[in-house]
Amino acid sequence: MQRVKRRLAAIMCxxxxxxxxxxxxxxxxxxxxxxxxxxxxxxxTDRHSGRIVNTWGDxxxxxxxxxxxxxxxxxxIQNELTHRNSDLPDNNRMEFxxxxxxxxxxxxxxxxxxxxxxxxxxxxxLAPRGGIMLSQSVYDQVRTKLALGFENLGPRKVKxxxxxxxxxxxxxxxxxxxxxxxxREEPDAAAEGHxxxxxxxxxxxxxxxxxxxxxxxxRWLRGQPRRVQGCVFMIGFFLVLNxxxxxxxxxxxxxPSLPFAAMLxxxxxxxxKDKKLNG
Length: 279
Prior knowledge:
Layout: E1 5-16, H1 19-25, H2 27-47, E2 50-56, E3 59-64, H3 67-85, E4 96-108, E5 111-113, H4 115-126, E6 132-135, H5 136-142, E7 149-156, E8 165-171, H6 200-222, H7 226-245, H8 254-277
Parallel strand pairs: 4-6
Antiparallel strand pairs: 1-3, 1-4, 2-3, 4-5, 6-8, 7-8
């Protein structure tokens, strides 16, 4: 019996968010767009010395010998696809979720197997649309080497993996925050009562973080249906009006905002239900 080969590799798994709905809405257009986006992914994979192992349906599995190259490739893919999606109507946008893991894999011919692949696939399922999710092993390798921001989402229990997986999301366009030797973010100086000791670099970092957050919120809102955009606008309108009239002394904006908040909650509950039904 031939011995199974093993090696350490960075595995990237990607698939399309709500692919079945896109196909139901427009089969020909969705298939053409999938082919075009896969060409983009293939080109960027080659640039970063990756190997496309498998593609089925809307999914892609890629193997990299370098975890740095894997994350850089994923970021470039999401940035390029976001740019292409920006010219499309909301309901025609094709957004990928990406998960990356660094682990031991089994190799048989051109195929790969094992927990290293399985964890990457589960991370992809946890990733938001247009987002990237990393395992602890990936984060440890890239956190000080790439000019990216990361958010620790904590341990997640995933299917077919015995131990919870520590997860990190990539803040696209952001930068990494200072960290302690334990890999956690340093406590904010203001929270410790030392705001006066913060230097220009700290304030610049905070300003950039706020800008990144606003940009992510803008992108998220652009991708939502008009009724969601309308609800968010009305809640924001009442909040601004509240601050202009009574400041922070009284928060009356909550009451006129309740119907719109209820509509938002209903929209997302229905969306989650549809997502579960569509697998």
